[in-house]
Amino acid sequence: MITRKVTLAAALVLPLVVSGCATETALKPAPQPVKWSPRQPRPADRDPAALAELDKLDLCALVDPGIYAKREANDQPISLVPWKHENRRECRLMRGGSPLLTVTDEESADDRERRYSAVADLGGIKGYRQEQWRDQKTVDCVYRIPVSFRRAIRIDPYFGRAEQPGGCDKVNDFAAAAAAKLPKNLVYSPDGQDTGAVGACADWLVPSRGEDCDPAVPVPVPQEPDKILAAGATDSQVECAVFADAVARVFGPGLRPVATPGACYFVEPPHRVQIEVGALAPADPPEMFGVDPAEWRERKVTSLHDMATVTFESQRGDEFSVYTSPHNDLASRAHLRLRVKAEPERGITLAGLVNTVSEVDKVRAVETMVRVLDQHFTWCSRSGGAGC
Question: Which interval of the chain is the signal sequence (predicted)?
Fold first, then answer.
């Protein structure tokens, strides 16, 4: 309705006088959620026997020196040099005395690199590509070929090589050639399970080994608001269920909910935006949030469906938050929250730049909260719609 659009716009720009205050209060810490217990089985990692085969593999055998010969005319000789750097095995492609490219047997503590990299199809074998951009130009690129949940063959050019015309194309050619030479029991198909993350949890932008995230499943939402908040305080699956319909209607079906130990998140494969939601009591009251001017700006106290609400954004502009009191009291120890975080597109690092939450997504965040209040926390929803 037109009246709703006006209300939503006003919620972003017009602070209202409601109960509560905008200063820090001395409160005891809110109770923590119950101990996390994954509900879905975890995927199995690579067979150790296959990884033992990787340990014996000559990394230089994965490099095709002819790729540079085909792409660059140069009289200097090309050589492959086995190397060891910080206990990691490497092979360096050299031209004369200058390094061109490095192939590394890389082990990571978590799957951070894979979550932020774009999936690359290397001739039917799964790879990941990460580019760094500056001034709209590629200045670096790295490819990884996963061989287990934590290990990968990393292929990256030496300083300045990626900036040259076709620089990343050459790295792609080397990665595809290396993938083709790896034993078949060490590679994954483009849609293969190469991390411990289950389903949409692979798109949750938090470093993890997969043990602390479950894709959301349909669970019943209690009818009474206070029972919803109590259930949300102990089970983030309930928080996902509270927001699922509203997020899908406003932001679209591409965002999928995942439950984690302390919150529900809505995530997407491109990783341009991530939404955190919560509905719980007891919890820190809304008045505590967004008050530090070193971190937050544009803090406004307003009202949504006669529920006291605080909105604010980060100083960098990459996060926008809506905190609503389901008791219409900003000092009450309960809250509904929705935080929109803007992220760089998957596979691209923008040097010196920060993606910011768009004005459209700020309005969407407020509209989503309005829909949640409509569905679960207003007299209309509790009465089954009678008289509304």
Answer: 1-22
- Given this model, what pLDDT does residue 132 score? 84
Domain end: 151, 186, 221, which one? 186
Same domain, 209 and 334: yes
Query: 65 pLDDT band (50/70/90 cuts)?
Result: confident
3-state secondary structure of 211: coil
Q: Please check whether residues 18 and 142 belong to one and the same domain.
A: no
Q: Which amino acid type is present at position 89?
A: R
Instruction: Give the DSSP per-residue string, 6-41.
Output: HHHHHHHH-----SS-SS----PPPPPPPPP---SP
The residue with tokens 């991390």 is 195
Domain span at residue 297 reads: 2-41+196-382
- DSSP β-ladder status, 126-134 and 348-350: parallel
Distance CA 35, CA 76 (A): 61
Residue whose C-alpha is closest to residue 149's, from 201, 196, 85: 196
Confidence of residue 72 (pLDDT cuts 50, 70, 90): low
* pLDDT computed for residue 76 by the predictor: 77
Do 53 and 37 share a domain, yes or no?
no
Question: Residue 148: pLDDT above 70?
Answer: yes
* Tokens, residue 346: 């998957």
The predicted model scores a pTM of 0.84
